[in-house]
Fold this sequence. Notes:
Structural class of chain A: alpha/beta
Radius of gyration of chain A: 27 Å
Shape of chain A: globular
Strand content of chain A: 5-15%
Number of strands of chain A: 6
Oligomer: homodimer
Amino acid sequence: MLNEKPHLTLKHLTLKHLTFNIINVQITSEYLERAIEQLAKLPGTGRKSAQRIAIYLLKQNDDYAQKLAQAIVDLKEKVTRCSICGNVSDSDPCKICDNPKRDPSAICVVEEFNDVYIIEKSNEFRGRYHVLGGVISPMDNIGPDKLRIQELLKRVGEDDQINEVILALNPDAEGEATSYYINKLMKEYDVSVTRIAYGIPMGTELEFIDEATLSRAFASRNSF
Amino acid sequence: MLNEKPHLTLKHLTLKHLTFNIINVQITSEYLERAIEQLAKLPGTGRKSAQRIAIYLLKQNDDYAQKLAQAIVDLKEKVTRCSICGNVSDSDPCKICDNPKRDPSAICVVEEFNDVYIIEKSNEFRGRYHVLGGVISPMDNIGPDKLRIQELLKRVGEDDQINEVILALNPDAEGEATSYYINKLMKEYDVSVTRIAYGIPMGTELEFIDEATLSRAFASRNSF
């Protein structure tokens, strides 16, 4: 009897596959599904991470979920941008622009507000900031008009106290292009444009440094 | 003049370090800070990811943040556990336990509710589930009493229709230990205990299979 054992043919596979697509998953909690769906939209979070977060939230006994939800709502409703520097702030102008103890002569240009946080943590810079809100990136369709560059020019043009603009953008292609662009525009103003030093990070060993960094470190060498 | 250039001594470094600790970062938005703090508590999310999520939420124009917050609140307030199978559900009993079309003779034992989702998606199993809520893990201080094992025994003991308990736990040390434990307890009941086959996954090549899987595949070989 040749036909006793069913043969697995391509037709079988296709039929099976079709059945698979037709019958839906029985979802027991629409609310859970909705939460996973929303969480999965967060950057760096896929469906698996979203499920893990949802399990975590479900298992928490305290009012953490409530606090998290409130913090997200407040974030959207109460956090604004400083009209002077573009930094995120609860007030306008922000605490840094409004602080008379900050050095009014220097502006540090950064990409995003988290860079302000990082520089503030280093406690090296006591001037004020200008947050561009991004960098020039033709690939992502971000031109100079989408950044707060006009605001920077206006600020530098109107405030006589400013005599230095320090560029502190990331040392990648977009950051470099943006630095060059701003430097060029600044030539019309009576300010010196500097940028933070790119080179060998402290505490590392030369053998672990990539060539681009090493090459920059040589090009930007200082007298000892 | 030997002392023209200041020497960097350990004392300088220590003083500088102290200064660094004394002066605080000037935070411009308390609400943003609070949101980052709450987001950073999520599993798999550190401060950097939390910042990235906060930037993303701030930049969204639509009402996504509101929807996300509502979904999180609903998750905690409206999602409950099915008192029969322990699966997450908007109703009690859940849609699967309450569905007369599901096969009443088989119970599939899984670790967590997301396993139910995965098995439902495969559309292979038409019985009902039992969600343990974890696996035995002495390292994490999770004993059998913290899992829904007593509920499983009660269910099998009280429902005469059940004649098969299928174990579908993860094939790691904890999953194996839990499977053995449940199998042992089930000997007192008139049900057959089976477990899903562990072996070579479909569509892979033998050369990419680890030894433990290969060894299991040989031990569990079937007649062709």
